[in-house]
Design brief:
164 residues, mainly alpha, elongated, 5 helices, membrane, transmembrane, DUF2269 family protein
Amino acid sequence: MKLSMTSKKWLLTLHILFGAIMFGNMITFLILSISASATENRQFVEACYQVMHLMSNTSVKASTFATTVTGICLSIWTKWGLFKYYWIIVKEVLTLLLLGMNIWGMSAWTNQALVQLVNAEIITNIAIVQLNLWIGIIIQLISLLLIFVLSVFKPWGRRQLISK
């Protein structure tokens, strides 16, 4: 099944929109993480992690899922295919990384931070949770930027498929 030009444009628009939401989520996470790290106000820190946890269970998961589904549909229903081009394969690998981090990681890390903030006796471990969250945010931002660049420049060309 191939899409009409109008259908392809609508699907591409949705794909870009959901990708932008994913990127916006991670920028918001970055700002909230910086804010939480830069203050001694426990209530403010807890509020930052509550917002991140809420986002990780709603818009982060929804935008990740929607971007993945629209990307797969674009690959299947257009000339690009799932495995015809190296740049698409790299995007797929990065997408799998983002799926794991967005579906599991962000929620788990923000939940761990909230649990440790509530249980004041183990507050010293929050630095480890913050570090995990920072690493996750940075990996996601870099991955998303790479995906955007690959989508625009489409490097490496078409794979040479071996035929028998």
